Automatic annotation (TrEMBL):
It comes from Methanobrevibacter millerae. InterPro entries: AB_hydrolase_3 (IPR013094), AB_hydrolase_fold (IPR029058), GDXG_lipolytic_enzyme (IPR050300). Residues 3-107 form the Alpha/beta hydrolase fold-3 domain. Keywords: Hydrolase. Pfam families: Abhydrolase_3 (PF07859). This is Alpha/beta hydrolase. PANTHER family: AB HYDROLASE SUPERFAMILY PROTEIN C4A8.06C (PTHR48081), ALPHA_BETA HYDROLASE FOLD-3 DOMAIN-CONTAINING PROTEIN-RELATED (PTHR48081:SF8). GO terms for molecular function: hydrolase activity.
Length: 128
């Protein structure tokens, strides 16, 4: 199928198996690891939670287009997203990680000044 020219994501859940322990639920104001483990099993359905179709951290991502991922430094998925960006780069994907220092899960969608910075970064990224 045709691929998008670029991918932009916020706080991507790249490992629904939650295998990169420990997860620090106390630092993330929006997520908790116990509930997410159950949600991940439900989301996967009959698939293994480490199947690349539900956990892209475990797949071959070599055909993905340029990718920009936003993550908060205090969010539950921070370590997983860092691992994923490293994997994307190893798979030959032009991947960029933008870290909101002191920020939480999906911070760019909240009406805070840091969101304005994200909008500007996205505008510049799309011009490239």
């Amino acid at each position: 199928m045709p691929q998008p020219h670029k991918i932009i994501t916020y706080s991507t859940w790249v490992d629904i198996s939650m295998s990169n322990t420990p997860y620090n639920s106390e630092e993330d104001a929006t997520l908790g690891d116990i509930g997410l483990r159950e949600i991940g099993k439900t989301w996967a359905g009959d698939w293994d939670t480490q199947d690349y179709r539900v956990s892209p951290l475990f797949g071959d991502n070599s055909n993905l287009p340029d990718t920009l991922i936003f993550v908060g430094s205090e969010e539950l998925f921070y370590d997983d997203i860092n691992k994923f960006v490293d994997k994307l780069k190893k798979d030959g994907v032009n991947a960029k990680l933008s870290v909101g220092e002191g920020m939480f899960h999906i911070y760019p969608v909240f009406p805070i000044s840091e969101s304005n910075q994200v909008v500007g970064e996205i505008q510049e990224y799309l011009k490239e």
